[in-house]
Amino acid sequence: MKPVALLTNDDGINAAFLHALVAACVAEGFDVVVAAPSGERSWIGRAFSRHREVTLAEYPGLGTQAWSIDGTPSDCVNIALGHLLPAKPDVVISGLNIGFNATMPLCLSSGTLAGATEGTAWGLPSVACSMDLDQSIFERVHRTSAVCPPELQPHLEAACRHAARFAKGLVGQAVQGLQVHSLNYPSTIIEGTAMERSVPALVRHGSLFRRSATGFNFAWNDGVNFSTDQQTDLAVLERGLISHTVFDFSRTASP
To answer: Check: CATH 3.40.1210.10 for 4-251?
Structure first.
């Protein structure tokens, strides 16, 4: 029997990056099931839709069983595992995200990481995967997420093939604690790009809001990187390599 992969993301079920990951997982020999938000749910962390009904619809066109769910990434994975799949999958994969999920503040805010975290909360091997993009490319992809720019397509496909192979290697492994594997790909990735273990960079952003006439609007800034370790996720990406961070949320509390 083929291993089963449950896929989700936070950019929405129409995102080309998700569709490319589905294709790579099918080519790697997975039976793929998709449960993804109906629209973008970035920067939402592990939010659950506690105070409203969550609805879903089957999503055609992916060549595999897929549901579009009007909820968060955590909603999607929880509903899929609790109600939609006849049995637990072999692995949960969240992504491939438009933009990186590097540095501790971003990882704690990421809907992509949250989707994978919900998988590991059910005792399943779980992977979050993201792609670092230059700002100009990011803006283009973010505006029209259903289309990947032609110059980025071969690198996206290389990243997705790597993520599928990585996830395949987790099949059958016992899950220790609450572990999430976070993969961040450089935008220049090709077949053979090396992967290095990393730790999240410590970045402080200060205010992420700009005052308006009536309130406050979100306004991204790069923050200040206080890390000196050359094995941070940012440092690995800056060297043009794949960053692999393992979050074990069962070991984060101080004694």
So the answer is: yes
